[in-house]
Amino acid sequence: MATRTSADISQPSAIEVATPLRAGERTDPSGRPIKNHILLSIPDYEYHLLRPHLEFVDLENHLVLQEPRGRIEHGYFLNQGMVSLVVATTDGRSVEVGLVGREGIVGALLTVGLDQSPYRAVVQISGEGVRLRARMLKSTLASAPNLHLLLNRYAHMQGLQMAQIAACNRLHDIDQRLARWLLMSQDRVDSGWLPITHDFLATMLGTGRPTVSLAAGLLQRKGLIQYMRGAVRVVDRKGLENAACECYGVVQQYNGALGLK
Amino acid sequence: MAETFGVKKKGRPDKPSALGISRTDRDGKPIRNVILQVIPDREYISLRPHLEFVELAQQRILHEPGEKIEFAYFLNSGMASLVVLTRDGRSVEVAIVGKEGVVGTPLAVGMDRDPYRAIIQISGSGFRVKSELLEETLRYAPELQLVLNRYVLVQGLQVAQIAACNRLHEIEQRLARWLLMCQDRVDSELLPVTHEFLAQMLGTGRPSVSLAAGILQRAGTIENLRGMVRILNRKDLEEAACECYRAMQRFNSGMPRKPL
Questions:
Q1: Which of A154, B35, B47, B178 lies deepest, with the highest CB count within 10 Å?
Q2: pLDDT of A14-52, one tens digit each?
Q3: Chain A residue with minimal CA distance to B88?
Q4: Same domain for B134 and B204?
Q5: Same domain (yes/no): B159, B192
Q6: Which structural domain, as residue segments, surrounds residue B237?
Q7: Do B85 and A6 touch (CB under 8 A)?
Q8: Residue A220 to chain B, least CA–CA distance (Å)
Q9: Cβ pair A159:B113 closer than 8 A
Q10: Which fold has domain A173-244?
Q11: B115–A162 CB contact, under 8 Å
Q12: Which pLDDT score, from 0 to 100, does residue A256 have?
């Protein structure tokens, strides 16, 4: 029998909630359209419970939503943009362990009554979303079983994503990891240009800047990406998928079960 | 002394747990799994008829990546690893489960597979429950549901830390961290692990592991025996490990420490 690998996982069982609404079919209290997949997937009555407490937030690049070991004050449901979960070590190095876009929530720990996060949650690609006070989220969950289940599943999926990144960080080369990162980021934003510097990529990938520049140069010469000052554009998505390690495909499958791409 | 999930280390196996609860399965075997200890009586009683005692021998595979998960395993002793396998045949451990946890967390959120190989690293024993029976029980066991959901997240924190550690820390630090995490779950100074095996867990080659283990041995921290590692000086081993060990200990404090 051929050995199964972690890349062979079949599509996880689909979430048995009603088909999500389309972006814009719900609005926040300020009338802005909701695009967050979790908020679009819960039943009307649960959304109505939540809605009055949602506060619109602009998420600017590099805004820190949570500091390591700080109290989690809010849960953030992203409409647009991307947040990275970063583990920072005491010697000042850091590496990304997870990404959150409009498929998820920043502050998943709140759903199980925990309120301290060991990660830094930082906005990588600016966007917007709605936030909800921690206390309010906790008290709403008691009367919103669908939301509760979705958040617990999301937390589980995020754990799987992190596990794959754990393996990837150890086993794969920088150009594969860079390609994987660019694909995961592009999945979470609508624009072709990703506003990211090499310094920043180095922090995310847990390596030095020269190493990132070398890898980015390699991908550019192959015609897969185009790099400009402070921004990267994916030119050949298919080619980039081939250049990435299998981890991209694996993580994409988890996201599929959550309704992302 | 440091506590893991509220259970004092080096506890004598025959004594009731530090939680003061002495539960048994239907055959009278003592329950030492912390999740099974902290849930309320009513919930434990509804789960008890479904628990099946199992000896867990080293190298036994509890489930393979992508395979339907037939049972959840609540460990009583010993240790399981969750391992990611890549297509080129390499592997790396992403989480460790001992008596503080359960193997089969997807079942807690209504899913039936995950991408890991779950394999017994250090032999022990535990109780398994058929996935359908667990799911059925969960409908009427809100505290068990909560503690499993919480375990999912706390395990996620562990995984995240390992993700960072795999990238940022040296093999000696990671080896020391692994030995400590292992010892916390087996209450023994003698860990039955080969260097070959450690290499698979740490996602590196066997020579690198032997080199790192040699350095720790020359410092008098561990002793490398045939197919085993003996921990000689735990304090020094903690010094040699990266901060990730302490960080993961902190995460564990997020789990209930006393009966719910």
A1: B178
A2: 444 456 777 778 999 999 999 999 999 999 999 999 999
A3: A5
A4: no
A5: no
A6: 170-241
A7: yes
A8: 25
A9: no
A10: Arc Repressor Mutant, subunit A (1.10.10)
A11: no
A12: 61
